[in-house]
């Protein structure tokens, strides 16, 4: 197509050449005259005239068009000129890819032929110049503007800017792709942009005043600029806001009036329209999150420039690549592209209801794959849980099953509440996004791991949560069809990940209840989320008094809540996230985590005093659950020989002792918080057999661990001082309080005994002025393990033959390990074993066991008789009478073995034996006093610790009661008679019992009483003939007893503060029992 000049107007001043093809010299204004004289009326598209024969045709045409209203395409050129000015002015606001390059033709002409041509054909004289340059033609220095590196225009001394003919302004909204020309920008600008441009044009206009250009040209330009401003409206409140970048376009624009172009407008910061409105409880906790998606404009039926992203950036101005490439860094703010709120793939568990603890959309049951309901992992970005509670997010999440051309498809839709144009948090604008996921067989997970959270509640201050993960063998499987997931938890503290066999484990501590669990494959790639329902917040306000009886074999806990007294209510605090078979799940919880249920379920308390350190990360850190946990043994799987099983905690390893107590206190506190308890008053017991160092250490341990616990849980913890006789009591006093308050027994002239696994705690009482008065208390290390367990340890064959026990389970078990396993077995089977008593009564071996038990128990009563005699002689005890005995504790059940029919009560014949022993030892008449067994064996101390209805006197002494020797001994060379107090001070270098006198006397009295009373099922020692032991047997027996005794006495050395004082009588009795036990076992 050829563009030819149209004919001239009839009144034209232009005269054609008199000869065709001849060049005529004309004045510079000739081109302007030609443009004004053209008789041009186009019926269609307006095109610029491009047949002006000069290399500067485009800028000169623009000059003529702007300065000459009669110019045929004046209006079109004005709009193009306005479009380019607007592009420059809004380049930063809209992030236009606009740059400039300076061409200094005076310099370039020496190196470039084209530049030389431009220079030689410079417009001259510059009749319409708006500014002049010193010593040079203003056309010599021009700027070329580039859009994405392609030239689209230039500067001009006469028109400021000149858009190129059909320049490629590809992404500029007011560039017409069809005509390839700029248009007036007005309809593409929002009010804010118009206001900014309005003030920028004013600044450009004012800039003209600073330069001495052609006055007529300047006046005409001012008029054009003002016309442009007026067409935008009026914005007197708008301030001039210019870019802070001194070279925004890559080079400084500093030639004349072009200085005003150098800095485009800078948008004034506005509140974001795309800020995610968080759940109320999440507000202010994390930086704002901006959702970036070009579809927001279409969804809200708004222009992109109306959607404010951040500060001065709008949806129109923001180039997401600048954020991705970190060319733009936004501080104190987060941003995300909406597409990244979904995961790339959808993974699922090919089982229905595989996540009972998860929070899933309502219509999950509609998801079917190959005829089977599936359980989805949520294909969403966990960042959403920083801003939404699980409940809020679930309300905004929707699953829609679809039928795709290649199979089933899941559409996941998410409604995002954004701040919106009005920035009204109370009425956010919704933006819905969605993604369609093909349900692929290769994304099916065939197995789920054990996954638990503990505890499943919240308070405002609780900061101690634990998560447990266990995969049996899927992760270790080489079969690619075996698939499961691993986990990652938000804000996890000290994750402990380990392997054992084929099993994979993870133990994690958290300070907040996790809103979700991130699922990952073996390479730790994301598979999706498990959303957890937020447990209801508990608002604690009440208080508990908690009594803790930490025993050798068992530990018991009672509570007092406003007078309502009972065992600690053990309830499951687990959130069972995954559904796994019980035979896989429950053992894993018992061995590596917190048991869900305690056994036996009908009476879970007391707990076994057993600790497991299985797969501990570092025991020395003493972290509950991580480094040591309460172990709940059962008959089938309890093996004390395992390296991670720890028993005998009360008397041995201090670190393990603390670990057990830490987990115990944590578990109790969790149960308290779950039940609305804000304050715990701890009431603690200890045996009088504790050394002074034991007692001090025990009280301090509780003070330290409860202080730490208060910080982590927010539950106020009041742990008693060592000298607090109300809340830090001996086991004997707590037992007496129990008998008085719980069973309503009269303590006047009574003896109370708490017989545990390792100690028997004794207290003797009389009546006072207005209360029961304590006469004496002590603790002796003679209890269930010495009276029963040690004999079976010496003769495990007896267990196998008489009670059908698997011998393999007991091989290699010694002392504490043997006792611990037997304690568990007795707890579960003692009733069944007692039923066999009558069938075994005539069995000589069984009779031998009963005799050993009777000797030990009768020896304890004999020692009580000695106490009564000594106390009476010292005028501490006012009556020359023996007392009835109230006996409790776990060891008290042993008395049932000594009673015909296996049930000890006031009618049991063995009562006569015990009464006789007290009488013989004390020298007081035998009044056939009855022993009474507690209704709740092993509950007495824990229960008594939280009771205080009956006032007890004689508790004010903070000094430990002195031990009554009961047998002659020598300490550091100083003789102490049987009736003396045994008080150790300083460094103990020697402790000896040269010759037993009271123990032989006791054994003789025992044999005589058994023979005389003819108690069914009990017989004296076979060597007891004619009122005494046979001489040869007696000599050998006491020789062996003395030898056994010396072995034990060697250990009583060192600082008296660390020595657990035992009465010499009890030491002698235990030596006797050991020797007789070996004899019974055939050793």
How would you describe this structure in keywords?
1083 residues; alpha+beta; 7-stranded mixed beta sheet; 6-stranded mixed beta sheet; 29% helix
Can you walk through the features of this model?
By secondary structure, the protein is an alpha+beta fold. Among the domains are: 30-261, no CATH class; 269-341, no CATH class; 735-964 and 1001-1018. Helix content is 29%, strand content 21%. The chain contains 24 helices and 51 strands. The strands form 16 sheets. Strands 26, 27, 28, 30, 34, 35 and 36 form a 7-stranded mixed beta sheet that branches. Strands 41-40-37-38-39-42 form a 6-stranded mixed beta sheet, sandwiched between helices. Strand 15 (397-404) and strand 16 (407-418) form a beta hairpin. The longest helix is centred in the last third of the chain and has 30 residues, at 844-873. It starts with 29 loop residues before the first helix and ends with a helix. The model has no long low-confidence stretch (mean pLDDT 90).
Topology diagram in text:
Layout: H1 30-37, H2 57-67, H3 74-89, E1 98-104, H4 105-108, H5 113-120, E2 141-147, E3 150-156, E4 160-163, E5 175-176, E6 181-182, H6 191-207, H7 215-232, E7 289-292, H8 295-300, E8 308-310, E9 313-314, H9 320-324, E10 334-337, E11 348-349, E12 368-369, E13 372-373, E14 375-376, H10 390-396, E15 397-404, E16 407-418, E17 429-438, E18 444-445, E19 450-454, E20 465-471, E21 486-488, E22 493-500, E23 503-510, E24 516-520, E25 526-531, E26 542-550, E27 554-561, E28 564-567, E29 575-576, H11 582-592, E30 607-608, E31 611-612, E32 629-630, E33 645-646, H12 654-674, E34 677-686, H13 692-713, E35 716-718, E36 728-730, H14 731-741, E37 750-755, E38 760-767, E39 772-780, H15 784-794, H16 796-803, H17 815-835, H18 837-840, H19 844-873, E40 885-888, H20 910-922, E41 931-933, H21 940-945, E42 952-953, E43 963-964, E44 969-971, E45 974-976, E46 981-982, E47 987-988, E48 991-992, H22 998-1013, E49 1024-1025, E50 1028-1029, H23 1031-1049, E51 1054-1055, H24 1064-1080
Parallel strand pairs: 7-10, 11-18, 26-34, 34-35, 34-36, 37-40, 39-42, 40-41
Antiparallel strand pairs: 1-2, 2-3, 3-4, 5-6, 8-9, 11-14, 12-13, 15-16, 16-17, 19-20, 19-29, 20-23, 21-24, 22-23, 24-25, 26-27, 27-28, 27-30, 31-32, 31-33, 37-38, 38-39, 43-46, 44-45, 44-48, 47-51, 49-50
Helix pairs in contact: 2-3, 6-7, 12-13, 15-16, 15-17, 15-19, 15-24, 19-20, 19-22, 19-24, 20-22, 23-24
